[in-house]
Amino acid sequence: MTENIGVVDWQEDAGGQAHADLETTWTMIRAGLRRDIGARMFDQWLKPVRLGDYCPDSQTLDLLVATDFSANFVTGQFGDRLRMAWRSAGAEVRDIRVRRAPDASGPRLLDVTTVEPVIDLLPQAVASAVNFTPRHGFADFVVGESNQLACSAAKAMAAEAQPRFSPLFIQGGTGQGKTHLLHAIAAAFAAHSPGAPVLYMSAERFMMEFVNAMRANETMAFKARLRAARLLLIDDIQFIAGKGSTQEEFLHTINDLIDTGARIVVTADRAPQALESIDPRILSRLAGGLVADIQPASLELRLAILEAKRAVAGDPPVPDAVIDFLARSIRSNVRELEGAFNKLVAYGQLTGRAIDLDFAQGMLADAVRANARRITVDEIQKVCAAHFRIDVSEMRSKRRARAVARPRQVAMYLAKKMTPRSLPEIGRIFGGRDHSTVIHAVRTIEQLRESNPDIDADVRALLRQLEG
């Protein structure tokens, strides 16, 4: 018996006739509920329910579930149906109370790091703690000018305080860090809200699950699972383009979640306005939050990413020359850059081979060829002339006016950094100048980048344009 007078503890009085009668009635009620609401919905929410305490005075029966969230959801969705079922069964139960079992180990969370993300909020089917990949946290996301806005917005979306915007739409090319940010948001959110369900899935998976639910006549269960999420993360939304019924359900889902204060994060490879064959109402909803883009990583950011990886890679050591070679050679996306670094380190560890520049160039020859895009001095001159609004012929002229000389020095600096041309060759292309003039230009721009933010911003913008 519990300490509350008049309350029967069924765990200690399991042999009582009253308990046996209630168990029999509950078995009958469960069969009816499974038939009425469908097997999938029943198995997810009501099958785990077990009998708890019963108070004969108030004729109130406790139904026990694994988490506080499950208790709230079952009460809201099935409370009235459960009361009516118990009263109709003729049992001496006038009211029911759904609550978390006292012996439950605490709130259980959705593990969003499975290889194939699926819709699954079944409390007893998931781990008791979120098991996110450590390298996908905010601490491991290297921030640069190209991804700073997206990272800051992601942190705001994951913070304990309610964000001022939702949904968050993150756009960027393949391998630039969108999925990393989704996992980081989920991990940070779950850390401060362990009882709130987190749901992460690809748009392709969303579409597949919805189609399967329609075929099985279980769309209500599908809707309930999605709308139970307090944080919904959808990756690569562009893949629902042209799928009318899927888009309609997605629209209803985000509308309902926004209305209930849930947080939504969506990624795509382009801006909302550039998504083709997507319902305009969806585009309006997505664009109505915050749109943050991730640009291709600059040379500085690629170097910073490699430095971060080198710091934890262990032996064999990776020399600066190899880091510089990787950053300049693998420009397509961050994922390939990290993969190239991992390949070198793994091979070195397995074979005992020292990692040097010759070794790196040989091992990564195919990757370098795939990323190769020959940037010419002529191209640099044209891009710099357009950026500084001067005629391209001024790059080769003898004029020394600051408005012409400074853009010419920037172009020389970029030519030295981005092409294999020698100093004398660069000097000849810039109007037959001596190699010492090129050296002076390179040193001048290096110093100005450290002391003059405007010059540094100009160089960064030109690097991004040329590398892109």
Automatic annotation (TrEMBL):
<feature type="domain" description="Chromosomal replication initiator DnaA C-terminal">
    <location>
        <begin position="376"/>
        <end position="445"/>
    </location>
</feature>
<keyword id="KW-0235">DNA replication</keyword>
<comment type="function">
    <text>Plays an essential role in the initiation and regulation of chromosomal replication. ATP-DnaA binds to the origin of replication (oriC) to initiate formation of the DNA replication initiation complex once per cell cycle. Binds the DnaA box (a 9 base pair repeat at the origin) and separates the double-stranded (ds)DNA. Forms a right-handed helical filament on oriC DNA; dsDNA binds to the exterior of the filament while single-stranded (ss)DNA is stabiized in the filament's interior.</text>
</comment>
<keyword id="KW-0067">ATP-binding</keyword>
<keyword id="KW-0547">Nucleotide-binding</keyword>
<dbReference type="InterPro" id="IPR013159">
    <property type="entry name" value="DnaA_C"/>
</dbReference>
<feature type="binding site">
    <location>
        <position position="177"/>
    </location>
    <ligand>
        <name>ATP</name>
    </ligand>
</feature>
<feature type="domain" description="AAA+ ATPase">
    <location>
        <begin position="164"/>
        <end position="297"/>
    </location>
</feature>
<comment type="subunit">
    <text>Oligomerizes as a right-handed, spiral filament on DNA at oriC.</text>
</comment>
<comment type="similarity">
    <text>Belongs to the DnaA family.</text>
</comment>
<dbReference type="InterPro" id="IPR018312">
    <property type="entry name" value="Chromosome_initiator_DnaA_CS"/>
</dbReference>
<keyword id="KW-0963">Cytoplasm</keyword>
<dbReference type="Pfam" id="PF11638">
    <property type="entry name" value="DnaA_N"/>
</dbReference>
<feature type="binding site">
    <location>
        <position position="178"/>
    </location>
    <ligand>
        <name>ATP</name>
    </ligand>
</feature>
<feature type="binding site">
    <location>
        <position position="179"/>
    </location>
    <ligand>
        <name>ATP</name>
    </ligand>
</feature>
<feature type="region of interest" description="Domain I, interacts with DnaA modulators">
    <location>
        <begin position="1"/>
        <end position="101"/>
    </location>
</feature>
<feature type="binding site">
    <location>
        <position position="175"/>
    </location>
    <ligand>
        <name>ATP</name>
    </ligand>
</feature>
<feature type="region of interest" description="Domain IV, binds dsDNA">
    <location>
        <begin position="349"/>
        <end position="468"/>
    </location>
</feature>
<dbReference type="InterPro" id="IPR038454">
    <property type="entry name" value="DnaA_N_sf"/>
</dbReference>
<dbReference type="InterPro" id="IPR001957">
    <property type="entry name" value="Chromosome_initiator_DnaA"/>
</dbReference>
<keyword id="KW-0238">DNA-binding</keyword>
<dbReference type="InterPro" id="IPR027417">
    <property type="entry name" value="P-loop_NTPase"/>
</dbReference>
<dbReference type="InterPro" id="IPR010921">
    <property type="entry name" value="Trp_repressor/repl_initiator"/>
</dbReference>
<dbReference type="Pfam" id="PF08299">
    <property type="entry name" value="Bac_DnaA_C"/>
</dbReference>
<dbReference type="InterPro" id="IPR020591">
    <property type="entry name" value="Chromosome_initiator_DnaA-like"/>
</dbReference>
<dbReference type="InterPro" id="IPR003593">
    <property type="entry name" value="AAA+_ATPase"/>
</dbReference>
<dbReference type="InterPro" id="IPR013317">
    <property type="entry name" value="DnaA_dom"/>
</dbReference>
<dbReference type="InterPro" id="IPR024633">
    <property type="entry name" value="DnaA_N_dom"/>
</dbReference>
<dbReference type="Pfam" id="PF00308">
    <property type="entry name" value="Bac_DnaA"/>
</dbReference>
<keyword id="KW-0446">Lipid-binding</keyword>
<protein>
    <recommendedName>
        <fullName>Chromosomal replication initiator protein DnaA</fullName>
    </recommendedName>
</protein>
